Amino acid sequence: MEKWDALVVGGGFYGLYLAEVLAARVPRVLLCEQAGDLMQRASYVNQARVHNGYHYPRSVLTALRSRVNFPRFVAEFRLAVRSDFEKLYAIARQTSKVTAEQFAEGMRRIGAAIEPASRPIRTLFDLSLVEEVFRVQECAFDAAILKRLMTDRVQRAGVTVRLNTSVERLWPQPSGAIRVRLAAQEVMAGSVVCCSYAQTNGVAAASGLPVIPLKHELAEMALVEVPKAVRGLGVTVMDGPFFSCMPFPPRGLHTLSHVRYTPHGHWYDGLPGEPHAPAYEVFALADRRSAFPHMVRDAARYLPALIACEYRDSLWDVKTVLPRSETDDSRPILFRPDHGIPNYHVVMGGKIDNVYDVADEMAKRLGWESPIGSEAA
Ligand SMILES: Cc1cc2nc3c(=O)[nH]c(=O)nc-3n(C[C@H](O)[C@H](O)[C@H](O)COP(=O)(O)OP(=O)(O)OC[C@H]3O[C@@H](n4cnc5c(N)ncnc54)[C@H](O)[C@@H]3O)c2cc1C
User: Fold this and answer.
1) What is the pLDDT of residues 42-87, one digit of tens each?
2) Cβ(219) to ligand 1 under 6 A?
3) Do residues 331 and 354 lie in contact, with contact meaning Cβ atoms separated by under 8 Å?
4) What spacing in Å lies between the alpha carbon of 237 and ligand 1's midpoint?
5) Residue 258 Cβ < 6 Å to ligand 1
6) Could you report how far apart the first and last alpha carbons of the chain are, in Å?
7) Does residue 349's CB lie within 6 angstroms of at least one atom of ligand 1?
8) Which of 104, 190, 295, 361 has its CA 20 to 30 A from that of 158?
9) Across residues 201-214, what is the average pLDDT?
10) Would you identify the CATH topology of the domain 73-141+214-321?
């Protein structure tokens, strides 16, 4: 039987990043990805926003952590970061959970740059529905470039990557090692780090380990060609049932997502009385009729030029959050060391830049000497 020092489940951004980190500590690291390619799920299917705090006016901790992680991410992944657009946060007059004043004050308090948008930009908005428009400092990342960077990095770190290799079940061994059943073979691993995001509970459920309470949403983002007036912009209307229109660099288009219409349904996993529902299986069965017409009609009320968006396609995936995020829209990390058995560690980051918090927490909780996660890799 093959022996590995560490086995990582999932070849998304988290799995790749943590595999590299592990490879700096132990010699034989195996990363198993069930799909035929890396970074094809949530690490590709997302709004591509490198968060800098603005999106979380109701969760000071998440906003602050975003502020801390933003410069680190931008410096480390500068080749994948796009900042060649003007980023705007507009505050709706009605049903917003924050006022413009509260928003601006909150952002100043966490040190996030913010200023009123210029007059020509303001005139793009329907100011009877929008109280204020702010120009802020936020970026987008190109998931295709990020994938190339991370693929090179894990290769250089000596990580063995196996595609089309699903991790199915674990058995603890008296030595502390873990026997792992992959699709076509069994291997032995000193530790297993699960980075399977929407499928966080899959391996645990199959192995008789505790299932962690999670909320899953079937999410759609429309990919659109925006009209000229909006082309150099990334727009988010806050804070409630509104929308975002963000550049999506890998396709040269924008994503249009809407708090009301992007989720096409949700389900819970691991709550008392709720059986474990494998996320990708639910996803595969879901009806995927686009809600783009609803998204664009509502978004154009606030930013009328958007009515001329041309629909190209939709990106669909499962968005997974902790149930507590429902109330304050926070994005805490999930890190469960020794989950159910020794040396089985489960992580889930609610957003891309949280990888630093996960890496630092792993270093702290597993007693590693220095924080892991190199800024200058
Ligand atoms: C609609 C949407 C919008 C978002 N917008 C943003 C945003 O703007 N900014 C931001 O920072 N974050 C955003 N996020 C969150 C962000 O995308 C995730 O936090 C991040 O991508 C998670 O990375 P990951 O590697 O954990 O997950 P994934 O990229 O999903 O990777 C998990 C991998 O595990 C594999 N896998 C699953 N089960 C197994 C198994 N049993 N064996 C082997 N492999 C397995 C999967 O195939 C997959 O490749 C968004 C998410 C969604 C869904």
Assistant:
1) 999 999 999 999 999 999 999 999 999 999 999 999 999 999 999 9
2) yes
3) yes
4) 24
5) no
6) 33
7) yes
8) 361
9) 95
10) D-Amino Acid Oxidase; Chain A, domain 2 (3.30.9)
Predicted local distance difference test score (pLDDT) of residue 369: 55
Domain ranges of the chain: 1-48+142-210+328-377, 73-141+214-321
Atom number in ligand 1 closest to CA 48:
8
The DSSP letter of residue 143 is: H
Ligand 1: does its nearest atom lie under 6 Å from the Cβ of 247?
no
Counting from 1 in the atom list of ligand 1, the atom nearest the Cα of 353 is: 11
Helix (H), strand (E) at residue 44: none
Instruction: Kindly state if the Cβ of 49 falls inside 6 Å of ligand 1.
Output: yes
- Non-local CB neighbours of 94 within 8 Å, separated by 6+ positions: 129
342: pLDDT strictly greater than 80? yes
CA distances from 86 to 137, 308, 357 (A): 8, 20, 28
CATH of 1-48+142-210+328-377, picked from 3.50.50.60, 2.40.240.10, 3.40.30.10, 3.40.50.150, is 3.50.50.60
Check pocket membership of 48 for ligand 1, CB cut-off 6 A.
Answer: yes
Please give the backbone phi and psi of residue 78, each rounded to the nearest 5 degrees, phi first.
-55, -30
Using a 6 Å cutoff on CB, does residue 46 contact ligand 1?
yes
For residue 254, the model assigns a pLDDT of 98
**Cβ neighbour number for residue 375 with a 10 Å cutoff:** 10
Tell me if 41 CB under 6 Å of ligand 1. yes
Task: Report CA torsion sign: 144, 146, 148, 154.
Answer: negative
Whole-angstrom CA distances from 267 to 193, 263, 279, 333 are 25, 11, 9, 20
pLDDT for res 374? 36
Question: Atom 33, ligand 1: which residue's CA is nearest?
Answer: 10
Which ligand 1 atom is at minimum distance from the Cα of 202? 41
Q: Which residues are 193's β-sheet partners?
A: 8, 345
The mean pLDDT of 186-214, rounded to a whole number, is 97
pLDDT of residue 325: 86
